[in-house]
């Protein structure tokens, strides 16, 4: 049995731990051979492979990024893409494929399985934690820890200068990182994409914080939007690689707060720092278990499925369950955090 492995979409701490779990269990327990595909779906599309055996996965558990490389290539959007993927998988002698990725990568996996009979098992990943059907994705815990540490540090500099500090965290469609790091870091305002915010209310919270002689920390997810939408965001613009760019909300917010309250404000955009570097212990644990269970699903011939965390159990769900809709922050969870605002 030869199993192909690929990592697609934005990278995420824990990808290497999944790859190591897959290869260690597959080789040691089932005697499988593995082929790594480079850069997500680009690998099978172009027949670009990399050696994947026990020596190749030695020492990679604590390393961020992915030894296989990643890209957002989508073979469904390439003329003749599906046929080329099928031909290259056949040429490499691939019996089954494990695709590790988010919404887009797994969407391709689901379509290739359902419409073209490709034998795929999915593994969910994203620092945003916005994939349905799994309680958590690996990478999220690491990102929240990085953002929380940044907020802790920003409190002390904000208080020394009695400034407002706005922290922009990742999360285009869901505010999980903002909510968790905001609560863990004791932020005074948390703004998420799921709930449009009222700028007057944000300024009132900021001012009330100054009244008790504390400097406010505002955590804003990159996809958060004001109610009146009177802002100039680079929303929806595509960069030269065709990726959507959403940067700008943190800077815009700090300017508005400064203008309206007369208090000095600064912005910190955490950006890709949240995605890089070594994974947390929780993410290594979750990613490793996902890898072990993915290779078990291959052994069982349970294709078209994705491994998922339910409480402390790893279960298998149809890949489509994860990609059909994103998992957003429930309004009651956001309301619960509201007691700390202002
Ligand atoms: O992985 C998801 C995500 O981290 C989003 O929160 C963010 O908007 C996006 O990736 C940025 O990805 P890139 O810069 O790689 O296009």
Automatic annotation (TrEMBL):
Pfam families per record: PFK
Biological processes per GO annotation: canonical glycolysis; fructose 1,6-bisphosphate metabolic process; fructose 6-phosphate metabolic process
Entry superkingdom: Bacteria
Function noted in UniProt: Catalyzes the phosphorylation of D-fructose 6-phosphate, the first committing step of glycolysis. Uses inorganic phosphate (PPi) as phosphoryl donor instead of ATP like common ATP-dependent phosphofructokinases (ATP-PFKs), which renders the reaction reversible, and can thus function both in glycolysis and gluconeogenesis. Consistently, PPi-PFK can replace the enzymes of both the forward (ATP-PFK) and reverse (fructose-bisphosphatase (FBPase)) reactions.
Annotated localization: Cytoplasm
Catalytic activity: beta-D-fructose 6-phosphate + diphosphate = beta-D-fructose 1,6-bisphosphate + phosphate + H(+)
Residues carrying the site annotation Important for catalytic activity and substrate specificity: 104
Subunit composition and interactions: Homodimer or homotetramer.
Site (Important for catalytic activity): 125
Key words of the record: Cytoplasm, Glycolysis, Kinase, Magnesium, Metal-binding, Transferase
Keyword Transferase: yes
Official protein name in the record: Pyrophosphate--fructose 6-phosphate 1-phosphotransferase
TM segment ranges: none
Species this protein is from: Actinacidiphila bryophytorum
Record PANTHER family: ATP-DEPENDENT 6-PHOSPHOFRUCTOKINASE 3, PHOSPHOFRUCTOKINASE
Cofactor: Mg(2+)
Enzyme Commission number, as recorded: 2.7.1.90
């Amino acid at each position: 049995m030869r199993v192909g492995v690929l990592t697609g979409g934005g990278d995420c701490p824990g990808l290497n731990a999944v790859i190591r779990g897959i290869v260690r269990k597959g080789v040691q327990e089932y005697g499988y051979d593995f082929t790594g595909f480079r850069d997500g779906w680009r690998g099978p599309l172009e027949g670009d492979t990399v050696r994947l055996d026990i020596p190749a996965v030695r020492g990679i558990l604590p390393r961020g990024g992915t030894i296989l490389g990643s890209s957002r290539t989508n073979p469904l959007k390439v003329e003749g893409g599906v046929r080329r993927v099928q031909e290259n998988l056949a040429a490499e002698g691939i019996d089954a494929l494990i695709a590790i990725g988010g919404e887009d990568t797994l969407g391709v996996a689901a379509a290739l399985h359902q419409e073209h009979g490709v034998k795929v098992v999915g593994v969910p990943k994203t620092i945003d934690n916005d994939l349905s059907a799994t309680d958590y994705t690996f990478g999220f815990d690491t990102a929240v820890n990085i953002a929380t540490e940044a907020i802790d540090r920003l409190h002390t500099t904000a208080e020394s200068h009695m400034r407002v500090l706005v922290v922009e965290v990742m999360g285009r469609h869901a505010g999980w990182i903002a909510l968790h790091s905001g609560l863990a870091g004791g932020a005074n305002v948390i703004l998420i994409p799921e709930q449009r915010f009222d700028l007057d209310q944000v300024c009132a919270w900021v001012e009330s914080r100054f009244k008790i002689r504390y400097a406010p920390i505002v955590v804003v997810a990159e996809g958060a939007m004001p109610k009146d939408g009177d802002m100039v965001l680079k929303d929806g613009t595509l960069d030269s690689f065709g990726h959507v760019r959403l940067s700008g909300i943190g800077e815009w917010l700090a300017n508005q707060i400064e203008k309206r309250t007369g208090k000095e404000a600064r912005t910190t955009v955490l950006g890709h720092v949240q995605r890089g570097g070594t994974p947390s212990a929780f993410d290594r644990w979750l990613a490793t278990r996902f890898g072990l269970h993915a290779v078990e699903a291959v052994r069982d011939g349970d294709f078209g499925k994705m491994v998922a965390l339910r409480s402390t159990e790893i279960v298998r769900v149809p890949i489509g369950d994860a990609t059909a809709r994103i998992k957003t922050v429930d309004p009651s969870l956001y309301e619960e955090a509201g007691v700390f605002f202002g």
